[in-house]
Specification:
Blueprint: H1 3-9, H2 13-24, H3 37-55, H4 59-81, H5 88-109, H6 114-129, H7 155-159, H8 168-184, H9 194-201, H10 209-218, H11 220-228, H12 232-248, H13 253-263, H14 272-284, H15 286-310, H16 312-321, H17 338-345, H18 349-371, H19 378-391
Helix pairs in contact: 3-4, 4-5, 4-11, 5-10, 5-11, 8-10, 8-12, 12-13, 12-14, 13-15, 14-15, 14-19, 15-16, 17-18, 18-19
């Protein structure tokens, strides 16, 4: 065999020799430093909170921005020092700075969004008069556009008056976090996140459901309403819980209870019912879905019907006419969106806006029914529910 062929087949020992020589001399091989994703994430959250604190004119949001910016910065530093990504210490620091500290400060001084005071006042009315709605509302603060179940979060204001437990935000947070913890815990697994990351970081990496919920709660889009008074958070928590329970199958009773409880709080939870029932029919069968639907309707009706019958006029004024912009006072939620423009500048625009909303919902449902039939998993169902609500 020619010498050229032998030299071509010889192993490339030159680089190994150089590497051994560098290692024997005590010089470490050069590696390019990379900033971890979790560090960049917390730094971005800190920047957002700081900008919000500087530009907003709302006092609760300014307080939140100042506290959260410090918490996120500490979380970024802890993440930089942590040997592994997405550690619990950094998430705890972020949650402490973005939720616990600003919520404690605002509860102490009584600073909150107007929705919090509306819910607390509705709880007082529910216990005193049997209806959470003011019979003759005079201004926007007298209106309660939520379904009667939301008034339950205002009852602690009567029971624990003068203490931090009287603030409705404490119970919003408790309900939201409890629902997510139950939804994230899967039978036979320690965590929902472990199945997402096992192949990427190796079999030794595990994260519990608590880590996933901590990370979500510390995210600015969730932490801000948790601190200043997010009415939608308990609704979202119950909706997620309903989808999670529907995806697990079972008897359907638990899923029906969760979806019915969400439907008793706010109208925006009602589109979840058909989606969750379809998911339950796929995972557990048609009759289980029917049972869950009956349970959900009974739970929602038990909270809504008695109050509606106690004062039908007030119920319609607060819950139906005011959100549609047809109440005695203009809703502050009005904005130059297509529905608002139709209702304002087109004769009969309110009817047209509602018809357009129904048409959008029907078109979305037909698309997923015929083009992409059957939600068969909880993530896919969640995506469809979110996009359907956004498009509608």
């Amino acid at each position: 065999m020619p010498p050229e062929t032998l030299s071509a087949l010889a192993p490339p020992v030159r680089h190994k020799a150089l590497h051994r020589g560098r290692a024997s001399s005590g010089q470490a091989p050069r590696t390019r430093a990379r900033v971890r994703t979790d560090v960049l994430f917390w730094l971005g959250c800190a920047g957002f909170a700081l900008v919000l604190a500087l530009v907003t004119a709302l006092t609760p949001h300014r307080v939140w921005g100042a506290c959260a910016a410090v918490g996120y910065a500490v979380a970024a530093e802890l993440a930089r020092r942590s040997p592994g990504p997405w550690g619990r210490r950094s998430a705890m620091a972020a949650l402490l700075g973005s939720v616990v500290v600003p919520l404690t400060l605002m509860v102490a001084v009584g600073s909150a969004q107007s929705e919090v005071h509306v819910v607390e006042h509705s709880g007082v009315l529910l216990l005193d008069a049997g209806s959470p709605y003011v019979p003759h509302p005079a201004d926007v603060d007298d209106y309660d556009p939520y379904l009667p179940g939301m008034a339950l979060f205002g009852i602690p204001h009567v029971l624990f008056g003068g203490t931090p437990l009287a603030d409705a935000r404490v119970w919003f947070c408790a309900a939201f976090l409890a629902c997510l913890l139950v939804a994230a815990r899967r039978p036979g697994r320690n965590s929902l996140r472990r199945s997402w990351t096992q192949g990427r970081r190796g079999a030794g990496y595990e994260a519990s459901a608590v880590d996933a919920v901590l990370l979500l709660a510390a995210f600015p889009a969730v932490a801000l309403p948790l601190a200043v008074g997010g009415i939608d958070l308990p609704v979202i928590g119950l909706m997620c819980l309903g989808l999670a329970l529907a995806g697990r199958g079972g008897s359907g009773t638990a899923a029906g209870l969760a979806m019915g409880a969400a439907a008793a709080l706010k109208w925006t939870a009602w589109p979840l019912l058909p989606v969750g029932l379809v998911l339950l029919a796929v995972t557990a069968g048609l009759w289980v879905a029917v049972r869950a639907g009956v349970v959900a309707v009974l739970v929602a009706a038990s909270a809504v019907v008695p109050v509606a019958l106690a004062d039908p006029r007030a119920f319609v004024e607060h819950v139906v006419l005011f959100p549609l912009g047809e109440g005695g006072v203009r809703s502050p939620a009005a904005s130059p969106l297509p529905g608002h423009l139709l209702a304002t500048y087109v004769p009969g625009g309110s009817v047209l806006a509602m018809a357009a909303l129904a048409a959008a919902a029907s078109a979305w449902r037909c698309h997923w029914r015929y083009a992409r039939p059957g939600p068969s998993s909880r993530p896919r169902t969640g995506w469809r529910s979110g996009w359907g609500r956004r498009c509608a």
